[in-house]
Structure formats: C-alpha cells, structure tokens
Amino acid sequence: GAVVSQHPSRVICKSGTSVKIECRSLDFQATTMFWYRQFPKQSLMLMATSNEGSKATYEQGVEKDKFLINHASLTLSTLTVTSAHPEDSSFYICSAPGTGEVMNTEAFFGQGTRLTVV
Amino acid sequence: AQSVTQPDIHITVSEGASLELRCNYSYGATPYLFWYVQSPGQGLQLLLKYFSGDTLVQGIKGFEAEFKRSQSSFNLRKPSVHWSDAAEYFCAVPYSSASKIIFGSGTRLSIRP
Predict the structure, then answer these.
(1) Do B99 and A44 touch (CB under 8 A)?
(2) Which residue in chain B has the smallest CA separation from A34?
(3) Spatial distance between the Cα atoms of B111 and B78, rounded to a whole number of angstroms
C-alpha cells in the first residue's frame, strides 16, 4: 500500500516557539492531505485540508494563523504550530488519499507527531 | 450529517476470549465504514473497510466486521484475542470522500492475561 511518512515523531519545544511538522507521500502524489489532532484519551479531529497550489481549508474552530499549512509540492505538506503554548500539546497526524484504483476509497496515515510544549 | 458512535469507552477481555466492539453509524446514503486501530503512541492502521457487497467484511489480524443496515451497526469482532491486540480502536465514516474521515470516540481494549 501507499506510504505516508511524518516527521518528526516526537518534538518538545518551549512555549512561544514555532514547530514544523512534515507529511510526505513517499510513493505517490497527493494533491490533498489532511491534518488531524488528537488530545489525550480523545478521538482524532480533523483540523484542516491541505491543498497543493491553493490555500488550506480549516475546520470550524481551528485558528488558521496559529496552524499554518503549506502544501509545497505534490508529495509534501507541512503544518507549523506558531507561538506554541502548552495547550497545543497533542498528537498530530496527517493522511493522504489513495490514488489509482483506490482513488477516494482509502486514507493512508502518517505515523503521527507527539508535540509537547513546555 | 454522517457520524459514528462507539458506546464503549473501555473494554477488558481475557486473552483467548472473543471480542466484539460496537459501532453505530448515522449516514444518509449507503455508508462507507472503516475500523482503524491505534497502538499506544502510534499512528493509525486500517483494519477493514466496507463499501458495498458482502455485509461480512474480513480484515487484517483476524478481525471481521458485519454491516447491519437494520441496526445501523458495524461491529468489529475477533474470535480469539491476543495480548498484542491491546490498543485503541476507532470506527469511522467519510466526510465527503472516503479519504477524509470522521472518527468515533474510540474504544480502548485491554487484554487480561
């Protein structure tokens, strides 16, 4: 199956700094990627849709100025948490839709990034 | 709007015992349904999916799920659990496409030795 690689897997940063998380589709192109957030002991919530060549689409309640999304190429989307605060500590995970015969029939997830803001 | 409900927050079963995790869906049309597993600190792995056809779906790791339209359910089953099955399990449906997912609240599975 298709592989989505997410980096870093864990990051600890100081409050007020920014952190960039990368999501790459390794063996296929993804014009769209999705970013989710998971707080401890909670489910995954869709944050935004990353679109190659256009602006990201954010879900209601997600601050676009705080969570900057850039879909730099057909294989890379980045999520930057700006001016991070302890309440931003969470598990962030990206996904990309399949292509070809599995177009729009499955999502492939990265390994996730555990962000801790101290 | 489509949604899924997982009524059980936490389930503990003995190793070797059978397992059933419940999932109820709300969906306007014929649903697409998924079960994902998340091991501690890990990403998500697709266990199985239902799009159409046979209502009993076989997945990886010995899991299966049965789609029951009359009950709006898509319960996950395994005849004999292993300690390595301890994880968080999510039932899910798509937003507008099968790659943009709405997740249920999850069921945490613990295995009793």
Answers:
(1) no
(2) B100
(3) 13
> Cβ of A43 and B95 within 8 Å?
no
Q: How far is CA B36 from the centre of its chain?
A: 6
Question: Does residue B60 sit in helix, strand or coil?
Answer: helix
* Structure tokens given for B111: 């295995």
DSSP at B102: E
Burial B77-89 (b: 16+ CB within 10 A, else e): ebeebeeebbbbb
Q: Is A79 on the interface with B (CB under 8 A)?
A: no
**pLDDT at residue A100, rounded to an integer:** 56
pLDDT one-digit tens code per residue, A45-72: 999 999 998 999 999 999 999 999 999 8
Q: CA-CA distances (angstroms) from residue A8 to A66, B41, B99?
A: 19, 13, 23
* Alpha carbon separation from B15 to B9, B24, B62 (Å, rounded): 19, 26, 14
Amino acid letter, residue B34? F
How far off is chain A from B8, nearest CA to CA, in Å? 13
pLDDT of B96 reads 66
Residue of A93, A45, A47, A43 whose CA lies nearest to B105: A43
pLDDT digits (tens, 9 = 90+) for A34-44: 999 998 888 89
In single-letter form, the type of residue at position B7 comes to P
- For A10-39, letters b (16+ CB in 10 Å) and e give ebebeeeeebebbbbbeebebebbbbbbbe
Residue with tokens 């239902």: B50
